[in-house]
Design a protein that fits this description.
The chain is an alpha+beta fold. The protein has 3 domains: 373 residues, Na+/H+ antiporter like fold (Up-down Bundle), CATH 1.20.1530.20; 76 residues, Alpha-Beta Plaits (2-Layer Sandwich); 109 residues, Uridine Diphospho-n-acetylenolpyruvylglucosamine Reductase, domain 3 (2-Layer Sandwich), CATH 3.30.465.10. It is built from 23 helices and 10 strands. The strands form 2 sheets. It has a 5-stranded antiparallel beta sheet. It has a 5-stranded mixed beta sheet with strand order 6-9-8-7-10. Helix 2 packs across helix 12, helix 3 runs antiparallel to helix 12 and helix 9 runs parallel beside helix 11. The longest helix has 34 residues. The radius of gyration is 26 Å and the shape is globular. The relative contact order is 0.11. This is Potassium/proton antiporter. It is found in: Cell membrane. Its main location: membrane. GO terms for molecular function: antiporter activity.
Length: 598
Amino acid sequence: MDWMFTLVLIGAGLIAISILTSALAFRFGTPLLLVFLCIGLIAGEDGLGLMFDDAEIAYFLGSLALAVILFDSGFGTRLQTIQRAAAPAFLLATLGVLLTTVFVGIAAHFLFAMPWLYALLMGAIISSTDAAAVFFLLRAGGVKIYKRVRSMLEVESGSNDPMAIFLTLLFIEMILAERQTNVLISFITGFGTQMGLGLILGLLGGFLIVQIVNRVHLEEALYPILVMACALSIFALTGYLGGSGFLAIYVAGIVAGNSSMKGSSALRRYQKGMTWLAQIVMFLVLGLFVTPSEFSAVLIPALLLGLFLIVFGRPLAVLICLLPFRYDRQTLSFNAWVGLRGAVSILLGILPSVMGVEGANIFINVAFIMVLTSLIVQGWTIAPAARLLNLIVPAGLGPLERIELELPGNPKHELLIYRVMERSSLTQGGVELPHWARPSLVMREGRSMPYEYAYPLQAGDLVYLFSPPEYTALLDRFFSQLKEPEVSDTEFFGEFQVSPESKLKELLEAYKLPPTEGVDAELSIAEFMLRELRNNPVAGDRVRLGSIDLVVRRVHQGKQITEVGLAFAVEKARSAYVRRSQPAAVGFKEKLLHWFKS
């Protein structure tokens, strides 16, 4: 029985070490995936000598962990985020993955002298991006990315795994069948079955999860377990029927996360822990599975293939997919650069071994080297790239903690906790929180006191208050940052503010601007901007009007523009995403010419 204690000690010890070293990753901005993989490598065959070479168990554990991660990713994706980035993200998650597969496959064919099907399989394995790695590095770098760009990255990274898995399985099946004809027919029929079943069963499964949770009365602690069990059942059933279980569980997460569901606040907290555990287990298992001593045989061509993907493959795919949309070079460049490869690529590298492809070791070794190359080259440069491309939004402090409350009567309030900073206007006296904020408690030097006795507030105070979620952005104004922001409000949001209710013709007259073709001057400024932004505005959006830019400063509930800035130096605009007022019918050729001129 000693083996049992040894196994538990090793497993729990590796997880504990991974969690403790994640603090160093936050401190130095190191890609967290790289940390977990390195711990697995150190503990593995060429390190401390732990032997783990069962491809089926590695793939099973990795797939199970990925399913948990995808459900949480979908559960945390707001419908507004999907609406904001649906079309470009869908193209990147489907056509973009296919193009990346083709480009990398062509390079792999010549670098490794592989047959074409093997080369395309290599491209498919490495074709998906890693959302967790990207957003961890943005948090570690302390930067707040322009929301429209962040939404596209979030939706693409969360939804491109099913396409990569489908292509990998397709090429493996074709290799095993020794069939190199009818590639197009196999792709169309397989894609339709996998994605169609995945989407339908995901929508149905998400709806059933919501109905079950809302109708069944259980102990509170059982709801998160029930939801995760139902989600994994959807994943397994879809895969058993021949669909994409990964797409199904992601879609089920989106449906459940955007529905009114009992115990959703507790579920979100539970899923955070489950997702972290799933990521750690997946990365450790993948790190243990590979054998670094085998890398030398493929090191140079794998490094060259990784650099080709970073410099040519991903940028070309992004350019082709996003060129029909109204994105500038800054947005395109950032999306091209942050195509970080991660655990899914290594997981897919194991699949040829599981299915018995001849010479399968080359896939896992090359995938591992390419992922490490991506993490080292791109991982440490995401935040500097965002700064260089002017995609950082001035960050308000925001609450230290937001706690969703499920109270009798369903008032939909949150408990917000703020720290008062040294330069906050609240420390000066004469400035009070608005009456609707309802502060309930102030913590000062370890002592609690009512707000009225703590006034005026002091730097370092923790203020606890209840507020509806839509008012959180207004409360943020009263709490300023300790350090000076990287990007000033004036640089990003314009030199002046104008009333969004004012008529557009009043603005044109005030600044002696000529009428713009196709623009109704009787519209209010907010109505005009909403029309130009297709009723989907985010803070930082700019609309070009002659020699000035109208800038969205603040949005209420994702739909209503409540503050508008005005910028004159449009050629030095800090915001990358600038929409120019123009007739709706613009051809692809004109967009292509416009992009190269901008």
